[in-house]
Amino acid sequence: MKSIKWNYLILLLVLSSISLNVNAQFKAKKYKHAPDETIVVLIGQSNTTFDESMFPHLKFYYLPELKTEEAPDFITRFGTKKDFANPEMLNLLLIAKNAVVAYQNGYNKHMVASYTGDEFQFSILSKAVIPPDKKKLEDYLPDYITKENDAKIDKNKSFTKGKEPTFKDWADGDIVGLELPDFNVKTADGEEVAIKDVLNGKAGLIFFTGIKGDANYGSGNAYPLPMIWHIENVLYNYYPPRK
């Protein structure tokens, strides 16, 4: 009888160990090459129904609508090419430690809808830009975020405030290799800060998207601004393997 009890106890311990290992394997964790925090710039006025604390790894800043007097010149000129103010779009700039744009990409909600309903299948990490022979974000993060390498400056690309750039790739909104022009953003409390001060001499990810001042992002909406939800959960609630 004692032998049966001991065998039963050993079986329980083995099963518990297996369960713990499985749970550890699938426990949400930060993607290994993600920055500690990611910058999200919302185009539009801050909205009191939007709870920034729902996204603990994202640092939110705000800019007024494009083409207004308060909007930074660079953002107005560049943002209109990339639909920065659209809440259904994400526009990404990967900024290297030397403040040069190392990579850029754009994502929209239709990428999510094109999958089978499993939102975890959509990944800003593995979605390449067009044409498809370009590298993906996950190919750049090890060099520029983890290793903190400098990005190569494209001497043909420059931006002067008040002037429309004339370099060849500007028409397509391609600014890889351009030193990021400094511009001011605001916190939800209205405090103004320069984007390079936000980066603080470090490499980082900056996502741009829109926010509607009259929308209700409150408790009745499980996933306010769903594209932002993807940033938080792909980079910081990472369940490998995610394809």
Question: Number of DSSP strands?
Answer: 7
Largest sheet: spatial strand order: 2-1-7-3-4
Principal-axis shape equals: globular
Task: Characterize the main sheet.
Answer: 5 strands, mixed
Chain-averaged pLDDT: 80
- Rg over CA atoms, rounded to whole Å, is 22 Å
Tell me the helix content: 25-40%
Strand content: 15-25%
**Low-pLDDT runs:** 14-26
* Terminal-residue CA separation: 50 Å
- SSE order in H/E notation? HEEHEEHHEEHEH
Number of domains: 1
User: Helical stretch count?
Assistant: 6
What would you call the structural class?
alpha/beta
Please provide a written account of the structure.
It is a single chain. The protein is an alpha/beta fold. It has one domain. Helices cover 26% and strands 16% of the residues. It contains six helices and seven strands, in the order αββαββααββαβα. It has a five-stranded mixed β-sheet with strand order 2-1-7-3-4. Strands 5-6 form a two-stranded antiparallel sheet. The N and C termini lie far apart (50 Å).
Outline the fold blueprint.
Blueprint lengths: L1 H24 L12 E6 L14 E6 L9 H10 L6 E7 L5 E8 H5 L23 H10 L37 E3 L5 E3 H5 L4 E7 L15 H10 L8
Parallel strand pairs: 1-2, 1-7
Antiparallel strand pairs: 3-4, 3-7, 5-6
